[in-house]
Design goal:
- The strands form two sheets. Strands 1-2-3-5-4-6-9-7-8-10-16-15-12 form a 13-stranded mixed β-sheet, sandwiched between helices.
- 25% of the residues lie in helices and 29% in strands.
- Strand 7 (158-162), helix 5 (171-179) and strand 8 (184-187) form a beta-alpha-beta unit.
- The protein has two domains: 4-238, 3-Layer(aba) Sandwich (Aminopeptidase), CATH 3.40.630; 254-321, OB fold (Dihydrolipoamide Acetyltransferase, E2P), CATH 2.40.50.
- The longest helix has 19 residues, at 117-135.
- It contains eight helices and 16 strands.
- Residues 249-321 form the AstE/AspA barrel-sandwich hybrid domain.
- Zn(2+) binds at residues 53, 56, 148.
- One of its GO terms (molecular function) is succinylglutamate desuccinylase activity.
């Protein structure tokens, strides 16, 4: 197999479904799930996923370029690697999802939904992570990088969202996020149904959702915008030098979640409101029946505003700056 993305989009299982070259062994585990194992011993186990939302194609193209170099034997692989294209059916349709948002279904939340492609896929991806990390002996480094693009434009075009984590984030992991060119990091303070929360909570992985620009169809992405992220991924996979980060990312923490609970929901923002737009205290941002969402602190920033989500799902986050940390950054 030479082109992981091509085989995934074709819907056909490759033949043969396993093989090796001078650098590694590979095995096609399922549609959009590929495991690569270096010939030399390693204590690193890395999961890189993309395409959890089928219209977020730039990270898929970047990841496939790196995997192609590995499959062709042109690069050495350092960690055990699990590569996941999350929602192949949605990728083929160039839609965010077919029936429901896959990135809200992890941690067993798929059981609360009717039988649909995304519910079945969430279950399969949970299985894949469990099998991958349980197979590793003496794993010292377990990371999960979930690559996305945002629906809206952003004051920080490249940013990371980190799940709730009671443990300290490893210094090497935070240094890697800086080297990947992320301009901001957002820290959750509550559990969620995302893929990265699942891997962090259940397997102790250092996990981050990387938002790399804006969603575009296949073939319309300017991949030069993501050169720092691609170089950082190459350093992780191939053992190359990690690029020096230009600036430490600004840090934010989630202060409120806006949830749509009914068809009466109204989001009081323009459709072109950018991620990380700041609003002053007292601003009414959304209402849903008798529920009102106001800015409670002196200034809060909006992230992922989306009035079109299904009832019961997140319609936006409000953030505050981590001033103590940002003051240290300068």
């Amino acid at each position: 197999m030479q082109d992981f993305l091509k085989h995934t989009l074709s819907g056909e299982k490759p033949y043969p479904s396993a093989g090796e070259n001078d650098q590694l062994r590979w095995q096609w585990l399922d549609e959009g799930i590929l495991e690569l194992t270096p010939h030399q011993p390693t204590r690193q186990a890395i999961v890189i996923s993309a395409g959890i939302h089928g219209n977020e194609t730039a990270p898929v193209e970047i990841l496939n370029q790196l995997v192609t170099l590995l499959l062709q034997g042109e690069k050495m692989l350092v960690p055990r690697l699990l590569v996941i294209l999350g929602n192949p059916a949605a990728l083929r349709a160039n839609k965010r999802y077919l029936r429901c948002d896959l990135n809200r279904l992890f941690g067993g939340r798929w059981q609360q939904y009717e039988d649909c492609p995304e519910a079945r896929r969430a279950w399969r991806l949970e299985q894949a992570l469990e099998t991958f990390w349980q197979a590793g002996n003496n794993v010292e480094i377990g990371w999960h990088l979930d690559l996305h693009t945002a629906i809206r434009g952003s004051y920080h075009p490249r940013f990371g969202v980190l799940p709730l984590n009671e443990r300290a984030w490893p210094e090497a992991f935070m240094q890697w996020l800086t080297a990947a060119g992320l301009e901001a990091l957002v820290f959750h303070r509550a559990p969620g149904g995302t893929f990265t929360h699942y891997s962090c909570e259940h397997f102790g992985a250092s996990s981050c959702t990387l938002e790399l620009g804006k969603a575009q169809p296949f073939g319309e992405n300017d991949l030069t915008q993501f050169s720092e992220a691609k170089q950082a991924l190459a350093s992780l996979l191939f053992g190359e030098a990690l690029p020096a980060g230009k600036h430490a990312p600004r840090r934010y923490r989630v202060s409120q979640q806006i949830t749509r609970t009914s068809n009466a929901f109204q989001l009081h923002m323009d459709t072109d409101t950018l991620n990380f737009t700041a609003f002053p205290q007292g601003t009414l941002l959304a209402e849903d029946g008798d529920t009102r969402y106001y800015v409670k602190q002196a200034r809060e920033y909006v992230l992922f505003p989306n009035p079109n989500v299904a009832p019961g799902l997140r319609a936006g986050l409000l953030l505050v700056e981590d001033n103590a940390h940002n003051d240290v950054l300068g």
